[in-house]
Design a protein that fits this description.
Largest sheet: 7 strands, mixed
Number of helices: 10
CATH topology: Rossmann fold
Mean pLDDT: 96
Order of helices and strands: EEEHHHEHEHEEHEHEHEEHHEE
Strand order of the largest sheet: 6-5-4-7-8-13-10
Number of domains: 1
CATH class: Alpha Beta
Strand content: 25-35%
Structural class: alpha/beta
CATH superfamily: Vaccinia Virus protein VP39
CATH architecture: 3-Layer(aba) Sandwich
Distance between the termini: 30 Å
């Protein structure tokens, strides 16, 4: 296997959830060997269990129940977006239940979104249902140069061909528009210390793992130039933290604690984690 970015030979990194991860010793990009066609994987994987705590998915514990925390995290990113754009047309890629579309509509944007998951789109709130569609990036068809902002919050690492997808999205963006990407940073202290137990290392849904250098290169190859990098912490429910520690963190202690917490009905307790591993980049057309 050769690196997606620099085409240098990859080195085996580790195996997790029965999937092999490879790292490029040249540029540092980490990739998951999926082994099945991406479109087939998307249709099968992003179903009800992904959003409602299926241990095999290693994703959300209860996406709908955690809406207050998810929205709080989105509000933090929105505050940065508003430094560049106060209003305008916004397209949210991987919009799930539509929380960011709802939030940005409430804050002056004419917002739309899409998601490949039929389950997610079927659970979109009725207030934004006519603004969110079911399709992938490759299937997207919007008017050229129609959006002021395109957001990809915890989505970029799920894409099988990020450069191609960025090029497609670029065509929908106005010449003075911005794209916003939130993802994990493999160069962070948390990632380097936790290694395979780092919670962003969640194959198979996470296919690429970036650092500042590799995401910059990816953006440049697609015709973008970064304007701003920043890190952000996240509000999470106690249940979700323990669920992540149990699944992606491979912690047996977390599994036992999760059962206790849920029995005591303490799962909704809020926690704010700021580990420096959540990277957000705002970029414009080059």
């Amino acid at each position: 296997m050769n690196c997606y970015l620099c085409q240098k030979p990859l080195q085996y990194f580790f195996t997790k959830n029965s999937y092999r991860l490879y790292r490029c010793p040249s540029c540092g990009l980490v990739e998951t060997k999926l082994g099945i066609p991406y479109k087939q994987f998307v249709r099968k994987f992003y179903d009800r269990g992904y959003f409602l705590g299926d241990n095999g998915a290693g994703a959300y514990k209860n996406y709908e129940k955690d809406k207050p925390y998810i929205t709080a995290n989105m509000r933090s990113v929105l505050s940065r977006i508003r430094l560049f754009k106060q209003k305008g047309m916004l397209l949210d890629v991987g919009s799930a239940y539509g929380y960011f579309v709802e939030l940005t509509l409430q804050n002056g944007f004419d917002a739309y979104g899409f998601d490949p998951s039929s389950h997610a789109v079927s659970h979109v709130l009725k207030e934004v249902r006519n603004r969110i569609y079911q399709h992938s990036v490759s299937e997207a068809s919007y008017k050229k140069q129609s959006f002021d902002v395109i957001s990809m919050l915890d989505v970029f690492e799920h894409l099988s061909d990020p450069i191609s997808d960025l090029k497609k999205l670029r065509s929908f963006l106005k010449d003075d528009g911005i794209i916003v990407i939130a993802t994990g940073d493999t160069g962070s202290l948390a990632a380097r210390f936790l290694k395979r137990r780092w919670t962003f290392y969640i194959p198979p849904q996470h296919l690429f793992f970036f650092n500042k250098k590799t995401i910059t290169e990816t953006l440049q190859r697609a015709g973008f130039v970064p304007l701003s990098f920043f890190r952000t912490g996240k509000w999470l429910s106690l249940s979700y933290v323990l669920h992540l520690a149990k699944t992606s963190g491979e912690s047996g202690i977390a599994s036992s604690l999760l059962n206790i917490v849920e029995a005591l009905r303490l799962g909704s307790s809020p926690l704010y984690l700021s580990m420096g591993d959540n990277m957000v980049v705002i970029a414009k057309k080059s």
